[in-house]
Design a protein that fits this description.
Layout lengths: L28 H13 L4 E3 L9 E4 L16 E11 L3 E6 L7 E8 L1 E7 L5 E7 H14 L14 E3 H9 L3
Antiparallel strand pairs: 1-2, 2-3, 3-6, 4-5, 5-8, 6-7
Bound molecules: zinc ion.
Length: 175
Amino acid sequence: MSKTLSIAQLGDRVLRQQARPIENIESVQPLIDDLIGTAAVSNGVGIAAPQVGESYRLLIVASRPTIRYLNAPKMEPTAMINPQIIAHGDEIVKDWEGCLSIPGIRGWVPRYRAIEVEYTSRDDRVQRLELTDFVARIFQHEYDHLEGLVFLDRLESTRDIITEQEYQKQIVDTR
Ligand code: ZN
């Protein structure tokens, strides 16, 4: 059984640190289970280890439709260890993002539409994948957490921030 972990909130210094590479994959197996469980109960579509106070290069991509992201594609939660962005396309697209560590607001965040990533899977295989659109966005958001960045750092303007309440009213209700 996985534990639900408490989530570091903006202002916690762990969110501003560069996370450490993982050398021993066995040692992080329980953490992977707990991260997947925590993202699920929080209606998150991704989570990064620093968000639960573990400053390691590990993120989970767990896209699925939730009340926070109604149009997300469904996929198995995937743990990505020591992930890297190998290449990206030129096209940049904007969409709304929220963050479990920054509750109550959403931002209109520019990201690469397509990226090529490499990571080690939890069964210790090197994987290379092309990600596009919403899943590429999740990856870039979570990867930023490993670098001590949050989505606020990527905004072009503070005017691109709205409250969760306005997001629900203006965006979700009209989609
Ligand atoms: Zn986040």
